[in-house]
Amino acid sequence: xxxxxxxxxxxxxxxxxxxxxxxxxxxxxxxxxxxxxxxxxxxxxxxxxxxxxxxxxxxxxxxxxxxxxxxxxxxxxxxxxxxxxxxxxxxxxxxxxxxxxxxxxxxxxxxxxxxxxxxxxxxxxxxxxxxxxxxxxxxxxxxxxxxxxxxxxxxxxxxxxxxxxxxxxxxxxxxxxxxxxxxxxxxxxxxxxxxxxxxxxxxxxxxxxxxxxxxxxxxxxxxxxxxxxxxxxxxxxxxxxxxxxxxxxxxxxxxxxxxxxxxxxxxxxxxxxxxxxxxxxxxxxxxxxxxxxxxxxxxxxxxxxxxxxxxxxxxxxxxxxxxxxxxxxxxxxxxxxxxxxxxxxxxxxxxxxxxxxxxxxxxxxxxxxxxxxxxxxxxxxxxxxxxxxxxxxxxxxxxxxxxxxxxxxxxxxxxx
Amino acid sequence: xxxxxxxxxxxxxxxxxxxxxxxxxxxxxxxxxxxxxxxxxxxxxxxxxxxxxxxxxxxxxxxxxxxxxxxxxxxxxxxxxxxxxxxxxxxxxxxxxxxxxxxxxxxxxxxxxxxxxxxxxxxxxxxxx
Lengths: 416, 129
Description:
The complex is a heterodimer. By secondary structure, chain A is α+β, with helices and mostly antiparallel strands. Chain A has helices spanning 7-17, 23-46, 51-62, 65-105, 127-134, 156-174, 179-199, 238-242, 246-252, 265-269, 335-338, 391-395; strands at residues 212-213, 219-220, 228-231, 253-256, 278-281, 295-303, 306-313, 327-330, 345-352, 373-379, 396-403. Chain A is elongated and about 125 Å long. Chain B has helices spanning 2-7, 23-26, 30-40, 45-55, 67-76, 100-124; strands spanning 15-17, 60-62, 80-85, 93-98. Helices cover 52% and strands 14% of the residues of chain B.
């Protein structure tokens, strides 16, 4: 024990001189330790030590002042680093909120974050898609005022991407503090962005079209319309490429009613709607399409990285017979028959295969309007059943229908 | 979770053994000891050190200077909370108390300690054939 001029004061001075701690925390530490040292000295004096020796003993109990200062400084360093990370995360969160909000608000005309529709953009002339686009059950986040409204996120996209990258970096450094919050904002942002991709539609129906091979032989002519579906093929699940579903279509694809409406590289690949397309498959499931009459997607092609679905217009002069095991979709239904409060139900029906020698043609589309989608699963024609005289009455048997919503079956029911 | 997070950190403790327990044995367990002392009731640094001495019956003596970095770290981890308390006779003191998270951490650490001591006991016990 070294006895000098007030060892306690000297000890405290050494702490005060250490500038690694902020002034306020330094004052707190010194005050705490001074009280402690005075208590120790008083305890020693109570045991009979002289004041000077008692003070020196108290200091000796504390250990080296430098050691205490080092530990406190290290602690404060960690605290400061965490504060800076917290600030970075907070800024990122704010940016993410801004980006997500911008993405959601981007559908509104006149919003500063919105790039207004171009002059060429037009609302799609399809009651079906119009209703789909305005039916909340179809979209995870949508508030479209008008169907077919061009949506551009403006700078929300770049901002969102930048913020996302920053957020990812912070998360990789910091671990799980804001991970859950990040997921929420990622979901919001991706939802907004996904909706932007899915509701972009192009100009009105145009003439043109291509001829595509018929899996049943012959040529399947198209009647004046072609529906181009541009999808983010890289995002498409492999199963979806083989058999696109309506859900995939909404999620990953944009819809154009004419190849000319496609822009950029896709347009070059589809000059004037006449191009050699590589047939990907004849889909087992085909889709409701944009059409003023009864129509369906008859085939899905691949052009470069663009999935193009060709539109088949019914009535067909030589429609293929309904083949058991396939699905077909038609919009040839009076909307008023099934629409509920303007919503668009997806009605699942079962069609039976064309009977030998029986009619193979669905009813004429004249007078019918798009608006209701029917998904047919073609079942084997029942044995020992007389030839039908009415297509609707005998070829199609409605088994269920519902508005596309949670709980709605995604596959047509099995057919016995 | 809180307990396991903060207790795995480096614990710089000066433990002066008094003949029966080596300092290395206690190193890393001072967090638990301080939490256990504060579980009885809040106190300032001097009181905490005194209680440690008394309850161990003088077996170990904590280097009191290192108590404050430990208390500040526990406070940063929200295991303890502190506030100034004006003294009736003497300077004001910073009084520490256990938080709810501290209670949970203490319970977790007590469980770990029980497992540890029982396991050590079993290992040290002479084998019976």
